[in-house]
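Quick one:
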Amino acid sequence: MKRSIWILNVLLAAGLIAGSMELRRRWLEARQREAAMLAVRPVEIPPAATTPVASQPPPKLQAAQYFEVAERFLFARDRNPNVVVELPKAPPPKVMPNFPTVYGVMDIGMGPTVFMTLDVEPQQGYKPGEKVGEFTLRAATSKEITFEWDGKQISKSLDELRPKAKENQPQEAPRMNANVNNSPAPAPPVRPPENVRPAPGVDIGGGRKGCIAGDSSPTGTIVDGYKKVSYAYAFGPICYWESSR
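Output:
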């Protein structure tokens, strides 16, 4: 047993010595190769002849050179280089409504009063400056009425604003008789209503009301807080009711 251990130790020692000698030999060879490579000097190559280039300033940057970059922007595929400028749409023109229907103009020395109505409303007296629907009454004479609408003043003759005659009314065919004169029969005389109770009529503006046809009450009559005023004027009799309060 001891003998085999001694033999094994001798073999291990011999292997260790042989390995150390091989390692030293390789180390010496590496040092020799390194010394040989370091002893060789590199060959110097002369530089190639070059032509000197004249120094020029760099070109100026122009925005037009980057149009393609903006049009082909990869992170926004919906980008459109053609900008569409949408102008605001003009509002449609305002349509002028129908003018009021005028029945007459009265002036008793305190400014004109125009009796008119709009559509199906009852007629009423209006003074200059008052509104009739979308219109504003500006001036009135016995022949012409001036309105203001949408900042514009429009004048109309009294004949244009009078109530129109009803159209498409069936007319009775004239009867032909050889023994009877074809001239139209005279219209019966219009008689004013009798026994009309004294009372103020429609409002004519300025705190006054008109008189009802057939009212024969004397001047100064007071009814419902209104006092009757009547007198002769150059163009005919004038009659109206004013507040007595």
